[in-house]
Specification:
five-stranded parallel β-sheet
Length: about 280
């Protein structure tokens, strides 16, 4: 075959390929991963500035774990997390103008993240307030909160919070049956032992009491995840050494005083990023 005939054949094939490509139209980009973030103030990043344009009463941060995850993975985020939310607010309106959080979840949702349970039965605020008040009376010594309240908080978690979490996670799965649902535990607020009174105004003996209370809460979250088929994001190891008693550049959770964060005893930007990193790794996102 002559060189002219070969050239004509190559040109013909190239032209045919270009025409076929033109007929097929431009390549279609893959649909973005539809990601919904639910939950309470630890999920919303309440206290970390700047805030999003979501309802201001929710104190939802543009630097919370969901925004960190969405930015890192290129997900299409719908964030309806709201400070002070309880599991009942998944199905009901928490505030006037704030829709039930489950309204954001649908059959085409691909990923859901949530922190929940800490506000049920006033667990976090109730325990910290009660223990802080008790500590003042003893100038930070002893374990007055444990003496006063004993198993009150842990019994409420096991008897009320746990079943509420199971139902809430099942409701999420029912609305988004094909989604990967991840619920995170809470990063450590207190160290296992020791004290940083008055930075965290808890009596020395009650630091371990609150640490154990948080262990019970995280266990309830973990068990609820296992029961409902969700993925549990375990922060117990990765947040050790990052509690509210640590230095500002180390801690993930801010103390009650000597902090410039909008909401104390909540994760800072470093903590929200730590939560995001754990979710990406443990959830294999």
């Amino acid at each position: 075959m002559s060189s002219h005939r070969i050239t004509r054949s190559v040109l013909a094939l190239a032209t045919a390929g270009l025409m076929a490509a033109a007929a097929a139209g431009p390549a279609q980009a893959a649909d973005p991963v539809k990601y919904v973030n639910l939950g309470d103030s630890y999920s919303a990043g309440s206290g970390v500035l700047p805030l999003t344009s979501y309802n201001p009463v929710c104190l939802q941060s543009a630097r919370n774990w969901a925004h960190d995850i969405a930015s890192a993975k290129g997900y299409q985020l719908t964030d309806v997390s709201c400070g002070a939310a309880q599991t009942k607010d998944l199905r009901g309106s928490q505030y006037l103008g704030v829709a039930p959080q489950l309204d954001a979840v649908s059959a085409d949702t691909d990923v859901v993240t949530i922190t929940m349970g800490g506000n049920d039965n006033n667990t976090f605020i109730g325990a910290i307030t009660a223990c802080g008040t008790a500590a003042v009376a003893t100038a930070g010594f002893g374990s007055p909160c444990k003496t006063l309240y004993g198993d009150t908080f842990t019994n409420a978690i096991n008897d009320k919070t746990y079943p509420a979490l199971v139902q809430g996670l099942r409701d999420i799965k029912a609305k988004a049956p094909n989604a990967k649902v991840m619920i995170s535990g809470y990063p450590w607020i207190t160290p296992a032992t020791g004290s940083c009174y008055p930075q965290l105004p808890i009596a020395r003996g009650d630091v371990a009491y609150l640490h154990d209370l948080q262990t019970v809460l995280n266990s309830a979250v973990s068990r609820a995840a296992a029961t409902s088929g969700a993925t549990y994001v375990d922060l117990s190891k990765v947040s050790t050494g990052h509690d509210a008693c640590q230095a500002p550049d180390v801690r993930w959770v801010e103390p009650a005083i000597f902090t410039d964060q909008l909401v104390p005893v909540h994760p800072n930007a470093l903590g929200e990023q730590g939560m995001a990193d754990a979710a990406v790794k443990q959830g294999r996102l």
